[in-house]
Design brief:
Blueprint lengths: L2 H25 L4 H29 L2
Helix pairs in contact: 1-2
Length: about 60
């Protein structure tokens, strides 16, 4: 697996971890403020993941 694949995998895993944390918080009846923070973090990580994926595709020339 090349280095760029690892970067994409880490970015996608980070999004998944924050998503799961948000779902767990919601199902346990956690604070709404924490849910909002996790949602904002997830959106930011998704944006970063898309940028990374697009950069890797551009770099590979596909």
């Amino acid at each position: 697996m090349s280095g760029s694949n690892w970067i994409v995998g880490i970015a996608v895993a980070a999004v998944a971890v924050v998503l799961i944390m948000g779902l767990v918080n919601m199902m346990q009846g956690g604070s709404a403020e924490r849910s909002q923070k996790l949602m904002r973090m997830r959106v930011q990580l998704q944006f970063l993941a898309v940028i990374i994926i697009m950069a890797v595709l551009w770099w590979r020339g596909t």
